[in-house]
Design brief:
By secondary structure, the protein is α/β, with parallel strands linked by helices. The protein has a single domain, classed as NAD(P)-binding Rossmann-like Domain (Rossmann fold, 3-Layer(aba) Sandwich), CATH 3.40.50.720. 42% of the residues lie in helices and 16% in strands. The strands form 4 sheets. Strands 2-1-3-4-5-10 form a 6-stranded parallel sheet, sandwiched between helices. Strand 4, helix 5 and strand 5 form a beta-alpha-beta unit. It is globular, with a radius of gyration of 19 Å.
């Protein structure tokens, strides 16, 4: 099968390319320099030349603060970009796999969200990603819309200055004698390699629809940080940040854990626990640093 991965140099896109290539797929790894999802004509020409049977779209504007400051651009990339690919899915006859986010929920449920739960985003980012979901789901029947949560991976996260939460915590631990982290937001941190592996399993089916791919288990950001330091054997004092210590005007869901009911209904292998993913990620991170 010939596949095109859009956003191939991102955290998730990098692992998607790695996993699908390792399984013998022919993969075109496309960065923003190759293809801009906002430009319909350029997308049409680029994808027509490749002739993919499956397009995996990880391209997104996902810096929450920047989305709030520039909502028009956020909806162009996250909404209209998805619309363009959905149109081309029909025109060029490929399956579209579109990556979305846990931020389509408001967090009020306080128990794991399944695919059938009604979304209610709290911010521009969540709303723009939800608009992209709706475009894909209504414009092309051969689609997979996949929501993910709290991603961390080996490739740099450009929206966060090249770091993710894990590498940020390790950096802070090297620079400070104590670190303060909030404990009032709960999520399911997920290793990008695990998401990519399950996307390959999902792509091998024709069970089109909406899916969640979050790691099993849940934790607060504070518990996540504590586990990072424990697994990495980092001796730094970790404190709970006081309410309002890191002020922001942007609303975020206080609870955004995803339950993978969709893949369970297909009988696919469950996603690993977030602690298992973290252990493997830290080992890979150490190996990559040792080979520099």
């Amino acid at each position: 099968m010939k596949i095109a991965v859009i956003g191939a140099n991102g955290q998730l896109g990098t692992d998607i390319c790695h996993v699908f290539l390792s399984q013998g797929y022919e993969v075109a790894c496309l960065t923003h320099a190759h293809l801009d999802v906002v430009d319909l004509d350029a997308c049409r020409e680029g994808l027509r030349q490749i002739g993919p049977e499956l397009v995996i779209n990880t391209a997104a504007m996902h810096n929450v603060e920047q989305c709030e400051l520039n909502p028009v651009r956020a909806f162009e990339v996250n909404g209209l970009g998805a619309l363009n690919l959905a149109k081309l899915s029909e025109e060029l006859n490929f399956v579209l796999m579109h990556i979305s986010t846990d931020y389509v929920f408001d967090g009020a449920k306080m128990s794991p969200y399944v695919e059938s739960d009604p979304p209610l985003p709290l911010n521009v980012y969540g709303n723009s990603k939800l608009s992209g979901e709706y475009f894909v789901r209504t414009m092309t029947p051969r689609h997979f819309v996949v929501r993910v949560s709290g991603l961390f991976g080996l490739a740099p996260c450009r929206a966060k200055g090249g770091r993710n939460f894990v590498t940020t915590m390790l950096k802070l631990a090297r620079e400070r004698d104590q670190v303060r982290v909030i404990d009032d937001e709960v999520l399911s941190p997920t290793y990008t390699r695990d998401v990519a592996s399950h996307l390959a399993k999902l792509a091998a089916t024709e069970a089109f629809g909406l899916y969640h791919l979050g790691a099993q288990g849940q934790c607060s950001w504070h518990e996540f940080a504590k586990t990072i330091f424990d697994f990495a054997k980092v001796g730094v004092k970790l404190n709970v940040a006081s309410p309002g210590e890191f002020p922001t005007k942007i609303k975020r869901p206080s609870y955004s854990v995803l339950e993978n009911a969709g893949i369970a209904s297909l009988g696919l292998e469950p996603m690993p626990h977030w602690q298992d993913g973290l252990r493997r990620y830290l080992k890979e991170l150490q190996n990559s640093e040792n080979h520099r």
